[in-house]
Amino acid sequence: MNAHLPALQVVLPLLAAPVCVLLRNRRVVGVWATLIAWASLAIAITMLVHTMEHGTISYALGGWESPLGIELRVDVANAFLATIVTGIASIVLPYGPGSATLAIPQDRQYLFYTAFLLCMTGLLGMSVTGDAFNVFVFVEITSLSSYTLIALGKGRRALTAAFSYLVMGTIGGTFILLAIGLCYQMTGTLNMADMALRLQPVMGTRTVLVAFGFFVVGASIKLALFPLHQWMPNAYTHAPSVVSAFLSATATKVSYFVLVRVVFTIFGAAYVFGTVHFEWLLMPLSIAAMFVGSIAAMYQTHIKRLLAYSSMAQIGYMTLGLSMNSVEGLTGGLVHLFNHGLMKGGLFLVVANITFRLNSSKIQDMAGLARKMPWTTLAFAVGGLSLIGVPGTAGFISKWYLVQAALMKGQIWLALLILMSSLLAVGYVWKVIEVMLLKPPTKRVENTTPAPLRMIWPVWVMIGSTVVFGLWTTWTGTVAEVAAETLMGLR
Amino acid sequence: MSKPNPMRMREMVVVREVSRILIPFILLFALYVQFHGDFGPGGGFQAGVIFAAGLVLYGLIHGLDALQRAVPPRLIEVLAAGGVMLYGGVGLVTIALGGQFLEYKVLDPHHGEHWGLLLIEGGVGITVTASMTAIFYAFAGRDTVQNQEKR
Q1: Is the CB of B92 inside 8 Å of chain A's CB atoms?
Q2: Which residue, A311, A433, A327, A315, is CA-closest to A370?
Q3: For the ranges A397-411, B78-92, B105-119, B126-140, which has the lowest average pLDDT?
Q4: For residue A440, what is the DSSP state?
Q5: I need a labelling partner for A362 at 20 to 30 A (CA). Which of A145, A275, A369, A481 fits?
């Protein structure tokens, strides 16, 4: 059975989704989806352990050998990503849809779980496939299901947010498809490794350059790189908080991974950084994202919008790591991918708890919340400290890697910029903490009680692990470094 | 639903009678495209769309209620899920028989490829038919959905 893990990783949630439709009962479906997520997590961890010890697993779908057939190719980087996606899903699913923030009646909530599992299928497919066209198919599965998930949010604005994401996402998906088409035209193959080989003789052509451009823009829309981030604040604000937690922790991360794959696996660092000088574009945009995102976050009055802009800034750190074109930089990017997934997922779950009780996501409505929901406030504070990058939290580790990578390249100014933008994070985190801690409670807050235990433990699993991975860095550091070396072809 | 035209479509003799003749042939043609997919152009997706077109035509002429009596929304939901499960199920069976995912030749040394393809295309056909019909239900039934919410 072990040999089939790459296929089962994708097929398990894919087949579990229609079962949700047949089961229908809200509670049964909830338990079922959670079990599937846990099983997928077990598969992902098994694959990660296997790839760390024995190297890449290649799986020929339908028995057709690559490059003719579709190949699922799992190395440490892919397995690392699959572990993140399934891990976040395993924590978010038991939390449930957070009924107060859902627009659909309870007897149709099984559709939430169906869409959730399909979204997971797409993300896992993007993580494990070694076939360029497969990437596009899974991008579409992910996107279509995430439009549905976002549209489930309460209020009509969720529909417009989902629609504008649909327009942007379709453009992104189309660009990726165009890029794949151009590469296919030049090479006659869709297998990524084979495509990389066959692109070598034709690297100088304009077609390949245009293909690279389409890939970059398409993936950048999906990962919400500044200035293509417009869809993200609205989508995360109006989606149910649980959906924001899952998507912010996984969807943009997997898109980042697709960009990394395009850069290193398909086109190769020599072309991307040597000939095209992609870093001249990516580095300024990443730095702009770090600052614009953090500054915009300071001016928000809705807590979910604040977190969304903060995500945009954090994505800047990840792409910055990529733009450095070094193992250290990419390791920093990948570590931050993992750590930011945990902290932003955790913070959105905290917000889900708060909106569940307060029925509002305005920051001013949360005045004095610390007195009524002390644990939730503490969780927000810890997650916030991690966003800033205080030592002892996961955020510190990823910034440490990035600063180190910048110093190794002799770019002290870059290290200073990373530290400065971290200071900006203090601004928007303190803004929320101050209101929760120091302001006198409003009437709305006076009448609240702490969230039920069912909704508190997932928050603490996420927030707790940001502290765990802030103190114990062997695992994340080693895995991310091996993943970065694999991606850059040094292993 | 608004009624700009007092005359209903099912009361128009030409429309009603022509569709009565056409619908069985549309459905039959869909099955032809489905099963001819092995030897020529066609397959589950196209067949599913054609089959759903037959159902939609019936719905347009005789009204949504008549169509939903013939094909209840709950059945559509089950079919949409069932088609995907048939497709994936074939893959799981091939794994159980010792092959790779969707490696049909382990089903049977002589006819495996044929049977496997027939089954998964059947799954595609069922799901596409159901999804197209579900989309029609969603658009045509907008009024009903809003009324449901009020209730």
Answers
A1: yes
A2: A433
A3: B105-119
A4: P
A5: A145
- Say how far residue A229 (Cα) sits from the centre of its chain: 14
CA A122, A127, A131: angle at the middle one, nearest 5? 90
- Is the reported ipTM for this assembly greater than 0.90? no
Helix (H, G, I), strand (E, B) or coil at A131: strand
Q: pLDDT averaged over consecutive 10-residue blocks of chain A (491 residues)?
A: 84 92 86 92 92 87 85 90 93 76 73 91 93 93 92 84 92 94 92 90 90 94 89 89 89 92 90 88 93 93 91 92 90 92 91 83 83 86 90 89 90 90 90 86 78 82 89 86 87 73
Q: Which of A458, A329, A294 is nearest to A404 (CA)?
A: A329
- B51 in A contact zone (CB under 8 Å): no
Cα gap A248→A231, rounded to integer Å: 13
> Domain span at residue A288?
277-491
pLDDT band at B79 (very low <50, low <70, confident <90, very high): very high
Closest C-alpha to A454, from A353, A341, A344, A383 = A353
User: What is the DSSP code (8-state) at residue A73?
Assistant: E
- Asked whether residue A402 is assigned to any structural domain, the reply reads yes
- Across the interface, whether the CB atoms of B84 and A11 are under 8 A apart is answered no
Nearest CA to B80 among B118, B133, B31? B133
Within a domain: A242: no
Name residues 132-151 of chain B within 8 A of A (Cβ).
149
Structural domains of chain A, count: 1
How many other C-beta atoms are found inside a 10 Å radius of the C-beta of residue B2? 5
Output helix, strand, coil percentages for chain B, rounded to the nearest 5. Answer: 80, 0, 20
Interface contact B102, partner A, CB < 8 A: yes
Q: Report the chain B residue with the minimal C-alpha distance to residue A7.
A: B101
CA distance A117 to chain B (A): 13
Kindly state the tokens that stand for B117: 């393809």
A328 domain-assigned: yes
**What single-letter DSSP state applies at residue A314?**
H
Give chain A positions within 8 Å (CB) of B78: 21-22
Name which of B85, B95, B149 is nearest A4 (Cβ-Cβ). B95
Asked if the structure places residue A228 within a domain, the reply is no
CA separation for the pair A371, B91 (Å, rounded): 55
Q: Which of B78, B101, B149 sits opposite A61 (nearest CB)?
A: B101
Amino acid present at A487: L
Residue of B81, B103, B104 with shortest CB distance to A22: B81
Residue for token pair 């193992």: A327
- pLDDT at position B151, please? 43
The shortest C-alpha distance from A285 to chain B (Å) reads: 41
Length of chain B: 151
What is the largest distance, in Å, between two alpha-carbon atoms of chain A?
70
CB < 8 Å to A7, chain B: 91, 95, 100-101
Instruction: Let me know: does A106 contact A26? Beta carbons within 8 Å.
Output: yes
Output the pTM of the full model: 0.91
